[in-house]
Amino acid sequence: MADSDLEAIRQARLQQLQTQGSGNAGGGGGGSGGGQQDEQRSREEAQRTSILGQILEPLAADRLGRIRMVNASRAEDVENRLIMLARSGQLRQRVNEDQLKDILSAVAEQQKESAAAKVVVQRRGAAWDDDDLDDLLNED
C-alpha cells in the first residue's frame, strides 16, 4: 500500500475521531439531534467508501458490491475486517479478488462457529415434574 494511501486513511480516521469528540462534547442540543446523527452517519459512510476504494481493486470492489446486494450483513462484516486490516497496517497492497474470496471464506467460517456455539439447557435429574406432584397427593 502506498504512503499516500496510508496517509489518506490516517486523515480519514483523524477526522472521524474529531467528529466523534465534538459530537460528544455538545451535550445534547434538542431538536437537531436527529439531523446531526444522519450527517455523522453519512460522513462515516463516505469515509468507509473512501477507504474501501483505496484498498480494493476494481474487481474485488465489484464482487463486494454483489455480495452486499445478496447479504448486506456479510458484506458489512467483510468491509469491517478490511478496514481493520488497513488501519492496523497489515495490508501491504490493494486487495484483489482472490484475497477477497479468502476473507469471505474466513468470515463465513467465523459465522458458522458462532452459530454452532449454542446453549443447551439440561434439567436436573432430581427436579420435580408433574408426575411427582400427583404421587405426593395420591399417597395413602
Structure description:
By secondary structure, this protein is mostly helical. The protein has a domain at 41-116: PDCD5, DNA-binding domain (Helicase, Ruva Protein, domain 3). It is 74% helix and 0% strand. The protein is built from six helices and no strands. It has helices at 3-25, 33-55, 58-70, 72-87, 97-116, 130-138. Helix 1 runs antiparallel to helix 2 (33-55), helix 3 (58-70) runs antiparallel to helix 4 (72-87) and helix 3 (58-70) packs parallel to helix 5. It starts with a helix and ends with a helix. Residues 26-30 have low confidence and may be disordered. Residues 23-36 have a biased composition (Gly residues). Belongs to the PDCD5 family.
CATH architecture of the domain at 41-116: Orthogonal Bundle
CATH superfamily of the domain at 41-116: PDCD5, DNA-binding domain
- The helix tally amounts to 6
Distance between the termini: 85 Å
| Principal-axis shape | elongated
CATH class placement of the domain at 41-116: Mainly Alpha
Mean pLDDT: 80
